[in-house]
């Protein structure tokens, strides 16, 4: 099935790309979550608009991405969250929570869609988080999850 990506999907493409994927993947995952729309001749006109919006939010060069990476890796991120007695959280830490904590810690503003958690964060302690800044540049930072 031919689709137009509306968001960046790791391993598939960026917003505005027209890609061919299996029918079930598009119908059951990408389209319902808003990551893609079905390709039509009329939808092809939307590609230019999606690409313009992407250019506004995109980090243009690798040099800019490396500068932001250096700033991110120098930031100490501590997240106070509610937890139980055994150190398990009530719920989990989301990419939006991490992006907000980075900004609160004095780091650069990061889009929540660029934050990648290896696995859901459901315990207290230090966790490794990756922030995809550019296709070739990703910043790794430690997030300290502490009891509130």
Question: Would you kindly provide a brief summary of this structure?
Answer:
This is Large ribosomal subunit protein bL9. The protein is an alpha+beta fold and 148 residues long. The chain is built from four helices and nine strands, in the order ββαβααββαββββ.
Main pleated sheet:
4 strands, mixed
Q: Report strand order across the widest sheet.
A: 4-9-8-6
H/E topology pattern: EEHEHHEEHEEEE
Tell me the Rg in angstroms.
18 Å
Low-confidence stretches: none
Supply the number of helical segments.
4
Q: What is the number of beta strands?
A: 9
N-to-C terminal Cα separation, in Å?
47 Å
What characteristic shape results from the CA principal axes?
globular
Strand content: 25-35%
Account of the protein in words:
It comes from Streptomyces enissocaesilis. Residues 13-40 form the Ribosomal protein L9 domain. Binds to the 23S rRNA. Belongs to the bacterial ribosomal protein bL9 family. This is Large ribosomal subunit protein bL9. The chain is 30% helix and 30% strand. The model has no long low-confidence stretch (mean pLDDT 86). It is globular. The chain has helices spanning 23-30, 44-57, 62-73, 95-104; strands at 2-5, 18-20, 36-38, 77-81, 88-93, 115-117, 121-123, 125-132, 138-147. It is built from four helices and nine strands, in the order E-E-H-E-H-H-E-E-H-E-E-E-E. The protein starts with a strand and ends with a strand. The longest helix has 14 residues, at 44-57. A four-stranded mixed β-sheet has the order 4-9-8-6. Strand 8 (125-132) and strand 9 form a beta hairpin. With 148 residues, the protein is an alpha+beta fold.
């Amino acid at each position: 099935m031919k689709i137009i990506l509306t968001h960046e999907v790791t391993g598939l493409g960026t917003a505005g790309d027209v890609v061919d994927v299996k029918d079930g993947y598009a119908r059951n995952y990408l389209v319902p979550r808003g990551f893609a729309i079905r390709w039509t001749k009329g939808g092809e006109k939307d590609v230019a608009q999606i690409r313009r919006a992407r250019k506004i939010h995109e980090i243009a060069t690798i040099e800019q991405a490396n500068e932001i990476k250096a700033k991110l890796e120098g930031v100490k991120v501590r997240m106070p969250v509610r937890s139980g007695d055994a150190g398990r959280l009530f719920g989990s830490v989301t990419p939006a929570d991490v992006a907000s904590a980075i900004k609160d810690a004095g780091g650069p503003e990061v889009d929540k869609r660029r934050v990648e958690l290896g696995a859901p964060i459901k315990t207290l302690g230090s966790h490794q988080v990756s922030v995809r800044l550019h296709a070739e540049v990703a910043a790794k930072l430690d997030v300290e999850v502490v009891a509130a």
